[in-house]
Amino acid sequence: MAESQLSAVPHPLANPGYGKRSAPGQRPRTADDFAHLPAREAAIAAYIDRLPDGSDISVKMLAKTLPYGQCALRTALNNLKNAGHLRRGSEHLVGSGSARWVTRTWFSRTARDDKWWAAFQRGDVPEDSPRPTRSRAFILLAALGRTAPVMSLSAADCDALAPLAAEWFARGATEQDLRHALTAGLPATVHHPAALARTRMTAKLPPQRPPRPPLRVLECAKCGAPGRPEALSGGECGPCRGEPGPARRTNLAPAQVRAHAAEARAAATTRPRERNHA
Description:
Blueprint: H1 3-6, E1 20-22, H2 39-49, H3 59-65, H4 70-82, E2 86-92, E3 101-107, H5 114-122, H6 136-142, H7 144-147, H8 155-170, H9 175-183, H10 193-203, E4 216-219, E5 226-227, H11 254-277
Helix pairs in contact: 2-4, 3-4, 6-8, 8-10
């Protein structure tokens, strides 16, 4: 089916914080990304791949924008899951200041095996995090002359120094930290402010902070039960794959359970009599 037919209707976004999330470390997009899939699955995968993060890719919403019914879409999404392109689960919002978990649907243009998804769940896969080289860093450097006139920088200086300033922010420094490092104890005259700024930012660069592993839980694509990655082969739990569940164990033998029940019934019938004779 032609891609133009699949993208004729603008696709809505999910509620803020929910919806599609692109998996990290994907290869560049090519025309053969989904050539290994059946035609229907390939068309749906190509459509989802081009949606921005945060798009609502639930079965109900996809059925409103694609020419497939919910049953067909549910089957297709399960096939994409089996092929390693999709996983569902939940994730704790880092830095939210609360125990808030949100539902996630991770999509990978590059097919991944169970081992990769398990590493992703543990946070062992590098995240895509482009660092700002302008905006926050550029603005601070451009405004440096207001705090210390001898450290006034040109636009070219700010462009050249912005990546180094961005590295400070990536390591957890605040604007106040960087501004203090660049302006504290300055001489009365500075002949080369850009060179001094580079020297100070390089010499005083804070240490890298160890990354915090994300809190993620993967779920069975069929029943939605959370599980350990090694128990979700192909994205499905053992019972949904037809495997027998663990046998239930009890600490008491059946005869002991019946004996305790008889004692409880006897106690319940004798206590009223005891109260009446009191």
